[in-house]
Specification:
Helix 11 links the parallel strand 6 and strand 7. A 5-stranded parallel β-sheet has the order 2-1-3-4-5, sandwiched between helices. The chain has a 5-stranded parallel β-sheet with strand order 7-6-8-9-10, with helices on both faces. The chain contains 14 helices and 10 strands. Helix 10 crosses helix 14. Bound molecules: 6-O-phosphono-alpha-D-glucopyranose.
């Protein structure tokens, strides 16, 4: 059947809007009624000591978030790499490694080549894909479909949040199998994600207004800490892909090691910061930006908005949620900022120049 836009102006808007349903489908596929996590039986985390996560583009940022989860919750060491670097570096792969290849299409040439490099070296190869009949799925020992449904827009949206959902369930399963406590109520809280993502999508009015401002910028900086750092990277990637505005993502703590030199009144700084244990450090980063005339756009929750105080140029308020789930929710404004800035600039949202949905050549 032909996939239509269902009344949306672009596939990207449709796919952003589909995220609550897509995440729900991913959860239903791996989380049983009794809240037990059901992964393919062949995947036995008691036999695995380390993970190597490999992907390209947006999938790479899923892997970077997953590193925080696997390390913090399951206490397993994780290496993450972009596929095009991974195989040429010829990294040693120990026999107790689970190699995970994350790919929406399952056809990205570099990711497939990286997978082949790990054959006969890693203990197991898992493919986390949206297209279950893809090459990466076929060549993996274990296939983990992310259940996002067909994604048409070149910029990946619902595949990203579904990748994150499945990777978090994997990390939680690994923790359980290895005898580490799960964050309190995390599985119940995960069931609330579709509803929270729905609420986040509804915050689009404040983003639309702010995007008209961003459309005039030449450079934009995105900041985030911890597992929100990869979301800052994703926000910057999306903005440059869709609106052709130069954007860079940085770990908030790295601000003073470089990007602060760029700050003046023409460089907006988007700060992805739920009110978590490190929020006060982020507030001081924002003050450094504002002291140099920089315009801070803060994406946070109600409490964070209150604590941030005066001087913030614009605030996008999301529902509060447990820290572990924040990267999934904060992906939504990262997508919408890029979407509405592209609309304000009049660029081709679904088919950005020079980009392809799936890169099947090296
Ligand atoms: C291209 C697409 C991106 C995607 C990347 C990896 O660059 O434009 O949206 O994240 O490929 O694709 P994959 O299908 O392997 O996830």
């Amino acid at each position: 059947a032909r996939i239509e836009k269902d009344g949306h102006k672009h596939f990207m808007a449709k796919e952003i809007a589909e995220q609550p349903t897509a995440i729900d489908r991913a959860l239903a596929n791996y989380l049983a009624q009794d809240n037990s996590i059901v992964l393919p039986e062949a995947l036995d985390f008691s036999q695995i000591e380390r993970l190597t996560l490999v992907a390209c583009g947006t999938g790479y940022y899923s892997c970077l978030v997953a590193k925080y989860w696997f390390e913090q919750i399951a206490r397993m060491p994780v290496e993450v790499d972009v596929a095009s670097e991974f195989r040429y570096r010829e990294p040693p792969i120990s026999a107790d490694t689970l190699a995970v290849f994350v790919s929406q299409s399952g056809e990205t040439a570099d990711t497939l080549a990286a997978l082949r490099y790990t054959e006969g070296k890693a203990k197991q190869i898992a493919g986390l894909v949206n297209v279950p009949e893809s090459s990466i799925a076929r060549e993996s020992d274990i296939v983990l479909p992310i259940k996002a449904g067909p994604e048409i827009s070149v910029a990946s949206t619902k595949a990203f949040t579904c990748q994150l959902t499945v990777l978090l369930l994997m990390a939680l399963k690994a923790a359980e199998v290895r005898g580490h406590a799960l964050p309190e109520n995390v599985l119940e809280d995960m069931r609330a994600l579709p509803g929270l993502v729905h609420q986040a999508i509804a915050a689009e009015n404040s983003i639309q207004a702010m995007a008209r401002d961003l459309a005039g910028a030449r450079d934009v900086i995105f900041l985030g800490r911890g597992a929100l750092y990869p979301i800052a990277l994703e926000g910057a990637l999306k903005l440059k892909e869709l609106s052709y505005i130069h954007a860079e993502g940085y770990a908030s703590g790295e601000l003073k090691h470089g990007p602060i030199a760029l700050i003046d009144e023409t460089v907006p700084v988007v700060v992805m910061a739920p009110r978590d244990a490190l929020f006060e450090k982020t507030v001081s980063n924002m003050q450094e930006v504002m002291a140099r005339g920089g315009k801070v756009i803060l994406v946070t929750d109600a409490e964070g908005a209150k604590m941030a105080g005066d001087g913030v140029h614009a605030t996008i308020v999301l529902p509060a949620l447990p820290d572990v789930l924040a990267p999934i929710l904060y992906a939504v404004p990262a997508q919408q900022i890029a979407y509405y800035t592209a609309i304000a600039k009049g660029t081709d949202v679904d088919q950005p120049r020079n980009l392809a949905k799936s890169v099947t050549v090296e």
